[in-house]
Design brief:
Largest sheet: 7 strands, mixed
Number of helices: 16
Structural class: alpha/beta
Order of helices and strands: HEHEHEHHHEEEEHEHHEHEHEEHHEHEHH
Amino acid sequence: MQNRNKFGGLLAVVALAATACGGGASTAPSTAPSTGASSAPSAAATAKALTGTLTIWEAYGASGTSEKDAFDKIVAQVKAANPGLTVTVTDVPFNNLFTNFETQAGTGGGPDMYIAPNDSLPNEARNNLLVDVSDLSATLKAAPYNTSDVAINAATVDGKLYEIPESMKAVELFYDNTILTAAPKTTDDWKANAKKLGWVYGANGGGAYYLWGLYSSFGGKILANDGKCAAAANSGVADALKWLQDMKAAGMTFYQNDSNAKADLIAGKIGGFIDGPWQSGDLSKALGAKLAVAAGPTGPGGEWAPMTAPDGFYINASSKNIDLAKAFALQFLLPANEQLFANVGHLPANTTLKPSDPIAQSFSALMPKGFARPTAKQLNGYWDNFGNALAAAIDKGTDTTKLVADACTAMDKANAAP
């Protein structure tokens, strides 16, 4: 997202060590129901055999085979170590994951737990759909988990921990170094190579998420210190959208989803596009030594600085197996298991684990330039409004100053609604 202080006091700079990995309810959360909850299990306790049944949702199949395979291997290892444990895993399409969970959990159903980015963490926490796992904080920060403070902070809503962090993620430039022999560094470099580059902008591809890092390149910001939309107060966000319009005119390919962009990079139809480490496994298999990673474009307003946020486990407040879910998460996060994930592109939230893969190492080195994805409730009004503005800028060529002003007005109106 942003230049170092572009979001003021509301958003803290992500100060990740290079070895660290990578809607809206209005009421404050009460402590989530905790059927049979007890004090946090220690690392020693997680070594005890787990007995019982858990249902878990994940969405790694949306990113290809590598992440899904690694996840399944880790689950299999936990099950092998715990013969009395039954785990049913369901792969849910990412676009449906949060909606499905919120719908089912809201009526007392849904899985015991699920693993995902913190996209809907604030909304679900404030709607009391998640278990408050603050009792795990000390355990997670201690060995063998060594969870980074950045991950803990990004998993915290209104002072309470609602996510058990597993990895950290941010988006950067994947490129084929035989097509782009040198990574484009500036917005001007990108324009000179426009016909070799792609950009994911469609709503179903999370366009407003991929866009965020570009705001800082043009000196823009979304949230003011008081939580109001700040994007219309200066030209930076509008300039970022205008640059994308210019890139389209110069020949850059725009995609509704990252799957199509990935396919074109593998096929050699483009030389690079912005995406996250979850694509590393499949891209590395396809491109081998030709694959490289670099930061997104630096512009006239500053450096590329994308959202940095954890993937992690969320425990359903309606679950009858809360203690078991906590213990399972802690066994899943043991270093021998997490290393399997790290080796396919996950950037561990465990600061002592170092990815063996050079692509993952590249992502890790770039993480300090990102911002922790904020959990401020005012951000709920950002996604649809600025996603729609992005689509209109690319599909219709609408004046970007007007688009940003309208999106800001709609965002503030949504945030003011009871």
